[in-house]
Write a structure and sequence with these properties.
Elements (H helix, E strand, L loop, with lengths): L1 H17 L5 E4 L5 E8 L8 E7 L7 E7 L17 H7 L2 E6 L10 H18 L1 H4 L1 E11 L1 H12 L6 E7 L14 H11 L7 H6 L12 E6 L7 H13 L4 E6 L8 H19 L1
Parallel strand pairs: 4-5, 4-6, 6-7, 7-8, 8-9
Antiparallel strand pairs: 1-2, 2-3, 3-5
Helix pairs in contact: 3-5
């Protein structure tokens, strides 16, 4: 089918022209998307990089965007952590672009919480600059994070969405209130938070408060919450407090109890709730 090949080659050439030399483009042979890997959006070529998945075949209407943020207690993790989850196939099949990002970690940088907010902002600016080339609508964005990545997604969406381009959030077992006693039941997450925020709660309480999405309800957006009932790290009460705060403000939300699940991504639970999740967030993207 020469017309299809021409369309793919034309789009590929356009995208390659717009990317860095280190980025890699591929048309997936089975699934309906085009992937562009390792696009650098900042000075740190490893921690400030992203992979982009664009729906294929190419359509004239600009697509909405989901920004994906990995977990790892702000200390580790990588965008490759989402490999094998099927999120690339799912969202592109819905006609939505997926932007899977790395960001600066506290193990390499001081004042990392501020830098992570800057990184998300840089990604938002980058996709706006590339909107025409990638055929995306940069004003219709959903933030999707898991664990610490969910905290980053919520904090940016609730507190830094001054231009209103972010329309909804998907929170997979992210911490929401750093000041609540349920947050520091786990020694490791408490230690990581102290390193992230420049000291323990007793000595730097304002930073812990400022990092808590639950305190930014004035800017809260429609949110999907996914929480394991047996999570020993981010206790379920953290997600319950978020839902209560959203309800008190009249902010639409959808809560999924992942029964019997701990602190990890459960693909089967995601398969059960993904259609409802998409239906919920998509109504705010259109």
């Amino acid at each position: 089918m020469p017309s299809v090949k021409l369309c793919v080659l034309s789009l590929a050439a356009l995208i390659l022209f717009s990317c860095t030399n280190k980025s890699r483009l591929a048309v997936d042979p089975i699934d309906s998307f085009i992937s562009i890997k390792n696009i650098v959006y900042g000075a740190d070529t490893l921690q400030q990089s992203m992979d982009v998945y664009l729906p294929y075949p190419y359509k004239g209407v600009p697509t909405t965007v989901v920004v994906l943020i990995h977990g790892g207690s702000w200390a580790q993790g990588d965008k490759s952590d989402f490999a094998g989850t099927g999120l690339d196939t799912f969202f592109t099949a819905k006609g939505c672009a997926l932007v899977n990002i790395n960001y600066r970690l506290y193990t390499t940088y001081s004042n990392a919480m501020t830098l992570e907010m800057e990184d998300v902002g840089m990604v938002m600016n980058y996709i706006k600059q590339k909107a025409a080339n990638w055929n995306i609508n940069p004003d219709k964005v959903c933030m999707f994070g898991k664990s610490s990545g969910a905290q980053i997604a919520m904090l940016y969406a609730y507190a830094h969405n001054s231009d209103g381009r972010i329309k909804s959030v998907i929170d997979a077992y992210g911490p929401t209130d750093f000041e609540d006693s349920s947050f520091y039941q786990d020694t490791l997450i408490c230690k990581n938070a102290a390193a992230l925020l420049g000291g323990p709660l007793a000595f730097n309480g304002q930073a812990w408060h400022d990092a808590s999405p639950v305190f930014y309800m004035a800017g809260a957006l429609p949110t999907v919450i996914m929480q394991g009932t047996l999570d020993p790290i981010v206790l379920p009460v953290q997600s319950q407090m978020l839902q209560d705060s959203l309800l008190n403000r009249g902010v639409p939300n959808l809560y999924f109890n992942w029964v019997g699940v701990g602190h990890f991504w459960d693909k089967n639970k995601w398969l059960e709730c993904r259609e409802q999740t998409w239906a919920f967030v998509n109504q705010y993207l259109n």
